[in-house]
Prior knowledge:
mainly alpha
Amino acid sequence: MIQSKKRILIHSLLAIVGALIWFIATYVANGREPWDSNYFGTIVIPAMLVINLVAGFFDPERIVLKGIISISLQPIIMILVAGEIGSMFPLGVLLLVMFGVMYSGGGVVGKVLNKLTKKS
């Protein structure tokens, strides 16, 4: 597969899986935003770190971008679930971007694992 097609596939899957994680966590939390529930620290953050780890392993470039891409569809899920753009929406988007940068840590681990497996 051509490198650019591989990267597009990885980025698309990151955005879709990130949105699914957010949607499922919202559903499990009975319609509340995941960060308002007990599931955020135990399910959402680890899952987002893992998908970024996998993406970083298979495409070890532009790691921070991958973290941002992984949260890129979550604001849409927030709007669809709430049915409106609330007054706290801009703050929520800012927090999501901050979490996206944090999720890049998983991508860094994936990048390191990629380099370690190529040295062997």
